[in-house]
Each structure stands twice: as C-alpha cells, then as structure tokens.
Amino acid sequence: LCLMFLTPFTSLTWAYQLHYYLCFRTHLRRALPEFMKLSQTIHEVCARHDYHLLEFRPDPTQVLCLLSLQPAAAVAKVIQTLKSNSSSEIDLPKPVWARGYLARSVGSVQIDTVRQYLEHQSEHHGYGTRLLPPVYCYPAFARVRLIAAHCSFELSHQLVFSTRKRKGVFNSVIGRRLSDYWLRVATERGFAIDQISVVPDHVHLIVRIVPSMSIEDCALLLLNNGQYFIGKHYSELMVELGLDQLWESSAYAGTCGNFTTAFAKAWLRR
Predict the structure, then answer these.
(1) What is the rounded CA–CA span in Å between residue 173 and residue 79?
(2) For the segment 26-60, what is each residue's pLDDT rounded down to a tens digit?
(3) Bridge partners for 214 per DSSP
(4) E strands within the chain?
(5) Helix (H, G, I), strand (E, B) or coil at 91
(6) Claim: this prediction has a pTM higher than 0.85
(7) Cα–Cα distances in Å, from 98 out to 26, 29, 40, 86?
(8) Is 150 exposed, middle or buried (0-12, 13-18, 19+ CB in 10 A)?
(9) In angstroms, rounded to a whole number, what is the distance separating the alpha carbons of residues 73 and 76?
C-alpha cells in the first residue's frame, strides 16, 4: 500500500472557549452625540448574530468590547458585521466608522502558561522516564510575522486533536515528520504555528491566524493535510491499527494571549 484514501473532514464537533478583545473607532475620531445609545445597538447586533458580548464600554469615539465567538466565526467578518449593522442605526453622516481595527485574543490563562503546559507533555503523560519517549516537541525559534490590511492583531489559539479511537499512531519520528509537513502547510495557507507537542494519541498546537481566517478553517486545514500525509506515508500502520480515519471528528480550541479574559473584563469595567 503506497497511498490510503481517507475521507476529508468538512465539519467538526467542538469544545471551545474563544474570547477576543476588539476595538474600532469613529471616522476622523468624530464624537457620537448619543454614544450611550450605541451600547443597546451593539448588544442587539451581537444577539442577532450569535456573538456573546462578555463586556462592553461605551465611548464617544470608539467601541471597546470583549466577545466570545464560535469556532466558525472569523474576526474580520465579525468586525464588518458590527460596523455595518450599527452604522445603519446611527443617525450621523457616513461613514460612521474608521477603516481599521484592533483585535487581540485573550483566554482563561496567559499564553506563557499554555507554552509551559505543552513543553511538559512528556512528563504529564508518563513518558519522561523512557529512554526513547514517543514524543515530539516543536518550538518556533523565529516568530513568523502575519500581516493583514488596516488592522493590528494578535490571534493566538491552542488546538487539541485526538487520534481515532485514541490509538497510539505517533512516535517521535512520525511526530517530527508530521510537524514539518504542517509547517509547510501553514506557510502556504497564511497562518503560523508557534508550538507543537505530539504524543502517541493526541496533538497540542499553538497557532496564530489572520483575522480573515476562522479557527475552524485553520483546524480543518491541519486535520485534512495531516491525514493526507499519514495516509500517504504510513498507510500500512493505519491498516495495522484498523483505522479508516486518522483523527476523531472533534477538537478543542481555546484562545490565549498576554492578558487573561478576567483582566480584560476588569479593565473595561473601569
């Protein structure tokens, strides 16, 4: 067997916690005469589009908010929806909003805590005492710069994928080859992988995406390309393990950043 066809994933079942701090300003920093009414408008827009508004601070010249989003939501599309829907309900000369925006990921813990957790997966799963532990860890020594027009952003996410039936597919060699392949995919598709930790039956990653990409899009790229790579180069192993899919059709995604969600909430309330 030189190539094994594995059906690509088109959707996933998610466990997730995705929190984003967003800021956008009025055109020419023009003050809104009834800016307190903006709070009601933003709440209504979020409710219509299934955006969970965790915190909001009304301001005469800008919108400052903390949102919880679903995995299929792209930050750029969310900003566009908030701007266009609120603009139509504000009685001011158009355009109401300036072109750019700020977007930052926050989470229940800071990103340094997530990095340390990934670094210690070998010990966490009891492989640390083995002479040849079946673990591969990749840390990005050079930070890949991501660019998008008219915005400042930092959108970091932790992803966790499990193998089908939690079978032990990976060892250190396969983990390294899969990681190298994923890094090429990331370069071609415009996102960045900052860290990877591969143990036999699951994988942790820290990825950064551009605002036009949802974390679901990113996850599907990784899962389907990873499955293609393993099916091509390790088809005999898949047959031996009795697997017709490499991954479970579910995943975990969580945002992380330099600040926690609790800190962002407290700052907005002040």
Answers:
(1) 42
(2) 999 988 887 778 888 899 999 999 999 999 998 88
(3) none
(4) 13-17, 19-25, 52-58, 62-68, 101-106, 136-139, 151-154, 156-163, 192-199, 202-208, 247-256
(5) coil
(6) yes
(7) 5, 8, 20, 13
(8) exposed
(9) 9
